[in-house]
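Quick one before lunch.
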Amino acid sequence: MTLGKACWMKFKFRYVDDYFPIERNKNLTLGRVVHEAFELHYRGADKDSIISHISRRYKEEMAKCEMTDQEALIIDRATALGMWMNNPFIRERYDSVEVEEEKDIPFIGRTRLIYKMDAKVKLNNHCWLIERKVTSQDKRKFDNFCRTSSQVTNYIFAERLTGQSVDGVIFECIRRPLLRKGVTETADEFARRITRDYNVRPDFYYDRKIAYRSQDELDLFAEDTKKLISEMRRRIRKNEFYRNTDHCWAFNSECPYMKICFSKIPDPLLLELYYVKGGGHNDNRIEERQSGQS
Ligand code: SF4
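Model of the iron/sulfur cluster complex:
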């Protein structure tokens, strides 16, 4: 649904044609690795094994990429380590923390809501969903995002639909660094400076924000979602999709369908090289993150 709202042509490539990009967006690696670190922590892994996990994940990424991308990954790895090692969120005390599995619940007709939150926590008989965001947004922009994010509304709506009592969503925000590499600085020196900066300026990098949704907001979300679903069905039936070129570079990265989007008939060689058929329906989570931050 998020994809349809952003660009109907992207929706078509992904869910109608079923082309799944083989190379995942490198800009999403950082968010993914940091999320994995939290998940491992809440599943009981110790500090050293989480740090080894982060390093191993980047080693794997480096093995797949061109030499020209290696420097960016060295810097990204240092960022992920800085983000993880200095985060204040794991010191929060709750009565219980549950790492969430993917949920798939019926909505209307054959339509299902498929989603995965980062965690569910309980404190003093109140229940909260946890959503972690790795973002470049400053505090004001991030606060605004939390106020209206459909991702949050979707989570609270879906949980209440299954009879769960959920008060709201706690956002744990981790900012990307804004540091610039010095002219004489090597990639390793710059990487070390980034890791240190997370330790020196935690107030800049970490933020915690609670988002609520009123019953009116949840009802309006349900109405809007029903309309969107019927629009989606109509477009699929009539094969009616169009490009929203303002979305091609959303979130500072190139749309994964750029290679085939601007020719009337996609080049079969490009299709074979960059996409695989049939993998798209198993990756709702990634799409969700692209829609917010990573
Ligand atoms: S390249 Fe742009 S227009 Fe084409 S699918 Fe992606 S976002 Fe849409």
